Task: inverse folding
């Protein structure tokens, strides 16, 4: 919050992960970025998340601001502190969160009590929204994220009347928080609401559906994804629920941290006016992957899954390599796709390099040094990878879905003639269209003047949080009255 700025309202953000405390995907980046972005708009936000075993030490000395004596099998307390400038609330409930493994699973797979673990997070969030904290802070709005926070709007709606409004953001509808109907009572949900228009979902429960039918507003992370979610091929069973509440649905693009993702801040810095220095990072990237690529050097920084379209790469890459292109891959996921990437590396030595896993520093070098970033996703709620590409003048080649369609202006004749193109989009997400997009990339790369113009357009394209924060602030203001 800027000094002297009037506080427009207070928001409790409820999520399962948040940078820099814990991250398994883009959800954490968004949850971690929103407080500062909203502070610039006058909204004070606190983030509530579980105190997993890895985080309990971070909360030593934090003040206890809330206590729940009966939290699904044990006691819970909320500890307040600050991390990286964000006001954090950690729900310390050892019987639910103090265990080895990740936030959602352990060595044996998903935790069998995930329904209770994240219902507990939602239950505490709703109680804080109604009653406030011991330090006097009480939110005007509750903002839940994905299935892990989905029960929070439901607990708020089905409990005693309150003036606190709720928002739920769908980051990825593929994950829906399933639980059997037999858990209805154990999860403290009203039996009379177990019907198709409310909590019932294909004979069971879904925490995400619970949030969608009870929240005062629904947001998704891009305008195109908001429209897609009302169609069967993207809605994954919830399209009717969302379509029925279309008047409460809005798509607000995510942003990226432009201070962290900045070509000027890299080891070999460059900027819009010194774009030629990008070649230094390209050389370093080729050295890191032992590559010698005469044409455009593309990268893939991704989970290696079919959803991301990684299975299309083996069929389109040989022609791209034959025309002079190269590829560097960083990611992990499906073992079969990891093997397929390794096979490409062996088939095309010096032109394809693969690193299985994730390395933050290496990913920065890849965006700084590459000519293009490939994102052939079958669905993509928002996507941050293409935004990193834009920021670094590393042209995105993306499927025209979700946030990819909303952030990349394709280099077709109209886009090039108008001087606004920032990358290449293709549709549908199949090998034929993807292969044609790579041929278009090769043709663009062969024209240095046009290539340079598209690179400059990309680097000028706004990818920060400013406009998104303003959109959230406007939504909050409407709800809070």
Result:
């Amino acid at each position: 919050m800027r000094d002297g700025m009037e506080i427009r309202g207070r928001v409790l953000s409820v999520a399962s992960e948040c940078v820099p405390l814990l991250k398994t995907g883009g959800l954490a980046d968004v949850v971690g970025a929103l407080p500062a972005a909203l502070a610039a708009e006058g909204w004070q936000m606190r983030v509530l998340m579980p105190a997993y075993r890895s985080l309990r030490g971070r909360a030593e000395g934090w003040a206890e601001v809330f206590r729940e004596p009966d939290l699904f099998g044990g006691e819970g307390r909320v500890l307040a502190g600050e991390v990286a400038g964000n006001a954090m609330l950690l729900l310390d409930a050892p019987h639910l969160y103090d265990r080895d493994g990740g936030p959602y699973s352990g060595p044996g797979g998903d935790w069998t009590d995930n329904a209770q673990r994240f219902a507990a997070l939602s239950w505490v969030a709703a109680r804080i929204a109604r009653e406030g904290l011991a330090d006097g802070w009480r939110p005007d709005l509750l903002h839940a994220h994905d299935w892990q926070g989905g029960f929070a709007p439901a607990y708020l709606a089905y409990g005693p009347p309150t003036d606190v409004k709720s928002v739920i953001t769908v980051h990825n509808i593929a994950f829906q928080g399933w639980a059997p109907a037999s858990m209805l009572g154990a999860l403290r949900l009203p039996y009379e609401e177990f019907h198709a228009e409310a909590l019932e979902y294909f004979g069971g429960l879904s925490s995400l559906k619970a949030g969608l039918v009870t929240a005062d507003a629904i947001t998704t992370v891009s305008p195109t994804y908001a429209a897609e979610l009302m169609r069967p091929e993207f809605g994954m069973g919830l399209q009717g629920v969302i379509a029925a509440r279309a008047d409460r649905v809005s798509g607000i693009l995510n942003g990226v941290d432009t201070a962290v993702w900045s070509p000027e801040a890299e080891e070999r810095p460059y900027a819009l006016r010194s774009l030629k220095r990008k070649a230094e990072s390209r050389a370093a990237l080729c050295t890191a992957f032992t590559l010698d690529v005469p044409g455009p050097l593309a990268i893939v920084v991704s989970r290696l899954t079919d959803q991301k379209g990684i299975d299309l790469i083996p069929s389109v890459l040989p022609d791209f390599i034959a025309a002079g292109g190269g590829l560097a891959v960083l990611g992990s996921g499906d073992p079969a796709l990891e093997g397929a990437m390794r096979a490409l590396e062996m088939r095309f030595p010096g032109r394809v390099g693969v690193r299985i896993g994730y390395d933050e520093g290496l990913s920065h070098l890849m965006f700084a040094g590459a000519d293009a970033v490939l994102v052939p996703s079958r669905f993509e709620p928002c996507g941050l990878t293409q935004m990193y590409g834009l920021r670094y003048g590393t042209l995105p080649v993306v499927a025209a879905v979700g946030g990819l369609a909303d952030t990349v202006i394709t280099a077709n004749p109209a886009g090039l003639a108008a001087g606004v193109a920032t990358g290449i989009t293709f549709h549908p997400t199949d090998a034929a269209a993807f292969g044609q997009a790579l041929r278009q990339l090769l043709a663009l790369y062969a024209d240095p003047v046009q290539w340079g113009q598209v690179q400059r357009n990309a680097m000028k394209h706004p990818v920060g949080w400013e406009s998104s924060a303003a959109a959230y602030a406007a939504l909050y203001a409407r709800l809070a009255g």
User: Anything to note?
Assistant: The chain has a mean pLDDT of 96. The two ends are 21 Å apart (CA to CA). The first helix runs from residue 26 to 39.
